[in-house]
Structure formats: structure tokens, C-alpha cells
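G., before I forget:
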Amino acid sequence: MTGFRLETGGRVDRGQTVQFSFDGKSYQGLAGDTLASALLANGVMLFGRSFKYHRPRGVMAAGSEEPNALISVDRGPGRFTPNLRATGVEIYPGLKAVSQNRWPSLKTDFGAINDRLGMFFPAGFYNKTFMWPRSFWDKVYEPAIRKMAGLGDAPTAEDPDHYAATYAHCDLLIVGAGPAGIDAALGYMDTNKRIILVDEQDELGGGALADPALWPWLERSHKALIDAPNVTILTRTTAFGYYHDNFIGVVQRLTDHLPELGDAPREKLLRIRAGEVVLAQGAIERPLVFDGNDTPGVMLSSAARIFANRYGVAVGKAVVLMASHDSGWHDVFALAKAGVGIAAIIDVRERVDSALMHEAERLGIAVHLNHSVMGVTGRHSVRAVQICNNDDYLGRRIDCDAVLMAGGWTPSVHLWSHSKGSLKWRDDLGAYVPDLPNENVVCVGGCSGDWDFGTGAIIDMLPTPKDQSRIKAFVDFQNDVTAKDIKLAVREGFRSIEHIKRYTTNGMATDQGKTSNLNGLQIASSALNKPVADIGLTSFRPPYTPQTFGALAGHAKGALFQPTRTTNIDSWAQAHGAVFELVAQWRRARYFPQSGEDMHAAVNRECVAVRSSVGIFDASTLGKIEVVGPDAAEFLNRMYTNPWKALEPGRCRYGLLLKEDGFITDDGVSARLAPDRFHLTTTTGGAARVLNMMEDYLQTEWPDLDVWLTSTTEQYAVIALQGPNARKLLEPLVEGIDLSAEAFPHMAIREGIICGIPTRLFRVSFTGELGFEINVPTAYGLALWQRLMAQGAQFDITPYGTEAMHVLRAEKGFIIVGQDTDGTVTPFDAGLDWAVGKKKPDFVGKRSMARPDIVAPGRKQLVGLLTDDPNVVLEEGAQIVADPKQPVPMTMIGHVTSSYWSEALGRSIALALVAGGHEMTGDTLHIPMPGKTHTAKVSGLVFYDPEGARLHV
Amino acid sequence: MILIHCPYCDEKRPEIEFVNAGQAHISRPLDPSSQTDEEWEAYLFIRANPRGRHHERWRHVYGCGRFFNAVRDTVTDKFETTYKAGEPRR
């Protein structure tokens, strides 16, 4: 035996050595090793420091239930992964692993002072101690606690890896490829079911990997499954969550085990919809609770067998077994056979199966029945144990370098519980097992309580003559919860296991109590003097093991976080230096700065151009709905506040849409193209919402109306030409439409041809200037834009963005729904009562306009605000008060909704919602802002060209 | 993710194709103007919040676009049945 590597045995490749490092020191392992097995082979027992007490910790398990041996793997900037279980990290040449939660080093850790002060850190310690003074929490307590108590460091650089995500479907999903899972797959292989078999390890086999006698069967089975065309095998794949209707979240790890990272995604998230699920997750061995049970070298008995038989590693040279269950005896016999030195078998039971006794005798192993381990000697590794007789507590010392715990088995019912299957308590196993399913799922093998490990005694903790308040017997190793903590919680009055869990944090670490829940329950049960089944069980929730954020995010990051909608003209704006903003997922040009211009200068220039000559604006994002059918006018009449039936074809109308509660939800100009056809426009952000609302009324309230609604938002590119020269620019380009003021008045629509393209030409204005909105099929948008830019050069045509559009509309007092309204504004509040058809018997929201709260005085109403200092531009969102001398907190009577510098007026303008605002014209209000309280006078909403003379030309 | 049966498509589809549209079987009064404030308040705002069977409207918004009714258990999140708009309450 070299170090702790056994001469023979294991599934590792003895011809292939692998160089890796741990905390900067270089080690050699074998291909097929995990970090845990490779370090154990090198005699390393100390893997990390515990969460709260900074106690030295080693490996306790061999699989994903490992609570202690958490390490970080560093693969360069952005590829630092903390809190990995050393038992699940496959080694590769160059692997760089580091320990966690220690300073300055793993062996010498100043935080270990917490262990000596342990009496000051009882259950509920944080809740009790750091409550006072309150002000100390953010600055003093929390940062200090976070530094001392913790796991690995979070990575600081952006993750350079990419992650794949996909959906998968199968008739049968089998979770876990131990003997039970493999048997299930073999059993269904010859049906025509599509089968997916997943397992978290790097090879199939589960428990069979630690049983060489099963390897020939395993190899045959594996080959049969590979050859079956209907079976998909996914290894290194964790089923982490079981959701409704047999929807299972699965992450496949693709590159973490490879020495070189290629272009492949690091992990792949599969969302699997399965007709039927077989859970074969197996069972997890239970530790025993005794003083010093967390010393490095104390581990699960089954883990020692896995290290010996699967990895060819002896966990010690003189190993002691502490058992309450037969399975540990079988493990020790297997270890002896593999060449591991056994110091003694200690069993808490008075009597065990005589076959076990005979085998121990045959192998020459000393046996101590009715004995318990009462203490462990050694701090960084085990040197000896003190054992005592359970009756008279007479003890002795046994020198050893490893202690195996065989405390029985806990079925892994995690996914079963995610699926809301019920559980029942089995006294003979001392465990909860699956009872009634809630989905189409069955549990097989260990996770159903079906195993051949023999029998055992169910105990809460080992008997000890020591003062129980002075010993550290761990239940939850990862969260440093001891038996004493759970008993204290019960003494302090906690009765429900859910409360005990939260108070003590038992089972709340990243391992979700895989090794601690049942021991915690047993101890609580004894302390409460109630059967375990009466205390209940805490809920298991996804994920089964921690998963990366990268895998869950998948493609949805960066530019793909959410879709960005672009118009046909977007590329022109991009090429001409537009600054963009996102509006309801649309990328819109906000302004077009010329060299040296800031936003303010660019917006002023764009506004002046519109008011003095002509501006061009991409309005393609406007929501558009085609409303068609014999009852189209009747339908719109019922939806909108305005009357629609009398609107003549060829004319447009401003439409105001309320919700049934009477508040404004959308607006837009719509045109009647024919008696049975309307072209509606909605706000950019409201398009989908309005269509949904209209469909709702049409389908469910008025199914008798013969109307069809079609979203045409993306079918039209819309170019707004606004300004006194708009008509002159347009005239030579248009065929079949008379553009004269008489033939084509404001608020009209004509169909014709522009530059050879069919168009719906609106004469409308959101700027107060003579204006047109040219609708053409989307694919022609850019071509028409470029033609208009070329043709408009003679008028210094100026592209403008959404910011100038906002200023221009505010100068005219046109509202933006969602900016100047907030879901509690009525047409009257917004000064839009002119748009309400008073004679209409009904429309959506009409009845609510007479609700008591809506007719009550003092509602917030939309008004204009003119600051006394014309150079002050108020902040949008700023609160408004009537009397600035009142004591703080002041009574706020409203807020600024829109505020801009108006170059046309040479001063600032603002819109505001103010309680009773319509009665305040001319009053002075006060707007406290950082540094100064500003004053402003209440005005009307229209600041520029109130007569509308510029429109009707 | 739940599978929901669309009674129009007659298919079980993933819930991301659907949106919930509130409590079912609440009809807009034929003549809202004749409603008292109390009646109108009840229609607008008062909704059931049962523990168990709940009648709901859903829309197959990313499918056929139709609104339909469903009975869903608010405790288990399981759909008992779905049926077309206009059909009697189940």
C-alpha cells in the first residue's frame, strides 16, 4: 500500500496518473478519482472548516450528500466555483482546488476561536444577540458575521461560460442508475417507450460501483442499454426538481470534468416532460450522534466501502466501526477483504445476527457489543476513540485513524416530496417512505425503503456518561447544529419540527439535511416525548443539490435576456448615431446627437426643426389593430369613450379607452377606412394589452357582434413627417391623393401610392404642427425613409427621436398614458372629458365614472405648471406641497408627471397631477427638490399655440 | 409546469401558452347604468378566494387565442376540467 492507495481494486485507471493541486500544494491522483478519493489516497484528512465554529472537517460521505468537504475550484477569471462537494469533483490534470471559510490557512484558522466560545453560540444565537442596538446590524454585526460564518467566496468576474437549455420529452424518465434504476430500464427496454435514464455520477451503477461482484452484471446491463435505440442515458446529470404534471428539471454537467474547455456549453438544462417517472434515488446512510463525531476521519461506513472498492483507497490503516445497523458490518467485512486494517467493531446493540459474529470472528476482528463511542481523540484527524459499555459506562481506549458510522438508512424521498407525494413513517426502518403518489410516478429500490442491508436499532444519539451540555455531538454538520441545540429549542418551547428547523437551522444548509433530518427528528421526538410520526417532517424543496445560476439562466442573459424588437428603420438610426431607449421591448431612437451635442442640445435642435421646417420620426412601434366586420363601429362604440358610429370613412378620431373601473388605460388615433373596417392605433406599450382586452369583451361579453380583430403592429412601418414644410415635401412623392387642406383636412386618412408603395396616409399630429403619418408595408419602411431624407434635404429635414417627440407633445398638452396617468386617472381628471360621448348609453368604464369616489372632490387632476424661475426644469416624479413651511412629514398633494425645457417657449414647462388641480389655476405651489424648494404657478395644459392655428393649414 | 387542456384546440398544452383571466361566470350587467353603486361594486371588485375548487377564466393566448373556463383546485393546483366559454358552470 502506497500512502492510502490499496495495491489492487477500484475502478480507477492505475496506468494514468493525474496531477492536481489543493490549497497550492501539488498532489497525484488516478484517472477516475474524485477530489475526495485522491486526497484521501494522499493521506489528506482535513478538507475544510465548519460554518459556524470553524471546526476542522474531513470527508463524511462519498456522494452528493457530503456536508463537510466543501471546496472551491478555480478555473480562472469568472470560472471560480465555490461550495462544491469534494466527493463529486472529478479530478483532471491541472485541477486547482482550494479550501474555504478559513483564515489565514486551513490548518491555522483564527475563526476556530468560535469553537472555544461555543457556549456563547447556542441555537437562535443570532436572533438573541444581535437585536440591540438596531443600528449596529447593518454596519457592524452583519458584515462581521458574514466574514466569519460562511461558505466559499462568490465569484467576482462575469462568467465567461455559456449554458444550453432545451426541452425533452419521454414516455419514461428514470432518475438514478443504481441497480434499481438499471433494472427498471432493462425491464422497459423492449417496449417501444422512449426512456431517459439520468444519474448524477460519471458512470452508471450507483451502489453497485462499490460492489465488485456486481460489476460483470453492470457491464452487461450498460451495454444493453447503450444498444437500445429507445434509451437515452445521461450521466453527470442531476434531476434537481420535480414539478407539476411530471415536469422534471435536469442539469447535465458537460465540461467541469474536462482538463481543456472547448467551445461546448458548460452545462445543459433539460426541462423534461415525462409520461411516467420512476424514482430510483437510493438511500443515504445516517451518521450517529456522539461527541466528536465531526472529527476528520469519522465518516459513513458506506462511504469507506465506496472509497475502497470504487477508488481503491483505504480511509485508514486501523479502522473502527461504530454501528447501530447490520449494514456497517458488511461494509467492514468488505473493507477487510480489500486489505483495509480493521481495529474493532463496536455496536450499540446488545445482540446481533450470529452470522455477523461468526464472520467477524473468522476475520479476527474484535467486537464490542452494547458499547458506544463516547469521545474521539485528535483534532485534525482521528487518533483514537474512547468507548464505553452502555450499562456501566466502563470504558477503554482504542487506537485508530478512522471511525465509520453505520446508523441505518434514510430513503431519498426528495423528488417524491417535490411532486407532493405523501409519506408514511415506518418504525422498523426509522424512516419516512413514499406512500401515495400525486403524479404518475413510482419509487423503486432504496428510496422506497426496499433494501437488503439487514436491520438495525433506531436511536437518537449514542449513550454517554458525559455531561450532555458540554459535548459537541453534531446532527447537521454543514450548519454546525448539535444535539444540544435541538434539545434547547424544545426547552424554549418550540414544538413544530418546522419551527425547530428554522430556530436551530437544522437541515437548512446547502445539503438540505440529507444526513441530518432524521437524526434531528429523533432527537426532537425524544425531547418532546412524542413519536416521530406525530412531529411531522419538514418539506423538501428543489433543488436536490445546488445548481449554478448559469444553468438556470441558460440563454437568457446579455442581449438574449429578453427579446429586443426593432423597426425596419432601426439600422438607419444605428448608422446615424442615434442614442436608443427601450420602450416595451422596442428599441427606439431617443435622439440623434450631432458632433459635440449633448442630449439637451440635440433635443432643442430637433424640436426647433419640427416647429420651423420639417422633422421625420420613426413611429413604427405604435400598436395597430385592424378591426373588421359589419359590427365594427358598434364594437368600437362600446369599447371607447367617444362616439364612433357617425365617423365617416376617410376620417380619424382620437380614441380614449378606459377599463371597467373608469380609469384611462390607453389612447390613440384611429381611422375608418370603410363602413366595416377600422385602422386602430394604440400606445407602443399598450398594444398587446388592448388587443387582449378587446378580445375578452368580444369573445365573452358580446359574442353576438360580428367583428374580427387582427394585430397589424408589425405589418406597417410608420413614418411621421411633422412641420410646416411636411406637405411641400410630400406632394411630389404621392400619387392618387390630393394633399390640399380642403381635400385632406386634419384628422383624415387617404389610401394611395407614395414612391410607388401602397400607403395608408394619415393626416394627424402629435406635435401641434401640420403633420402626416405614412403607413407602408414594413419591408418598405427603410427605403421610404431614405427617399424622404434625400428629398427633404431642401428643407433641412431633421430626424428626431422620442425625447423631442415628448417635448413637442407636452408643449401641446397631449398626455402620455402611463406617464401622465397612473391607472387612477379618469378622463375628467386628465382634462379629456371632451373625448367622452355623454349621450352614449354605455361604454366600457361609463358606469364607473359615476362611482362615489370618482365624483368626489379633491381628486388628483392633471394641470400645467410654470416655474417662477423659467430656467428651472423640475424633476419628473417630484412631490408637490401647498405650504412649504408646514412641519415634516409634509402633506403631499401631487407630483410632477412630465417636465421639459421648451426651446419654442424659451422656458421650462411641466405637467402635474395635483389634488383639486382644476380649481387652482394661477395658484402658487411648492416643489421641494434637493437643495431648494421651487415655486410654480398652476396653468392650463396647452402651452404652445393654444388656438391650434398651426394644425389647420 | 402545469399542462392545461384547451377545450377549443382539444389538446393539453404547457401553461406558458396560457394566461389566467380571473374568476369565471361573472357577466357584465346588460345595462350598467341601472346598477346601484353596491351592485356595481360587487361586479367590479368582489371576487371569491376559495380554498379548493375555483372557477376561473383562462386564455390560450399563445395558441388559439380563445377564452375558456376551468375548474382548478387552489390547494393542489390541479385542473379538474376546462370547458368552452358560454357553457354552463361545472
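The longest strand of chain A covers residues 267-279. The domain at 285-408+454-535 of chain A is CATH 3.50.50.60 (FAD/NAD(P)-binding domain).

More on Monday.
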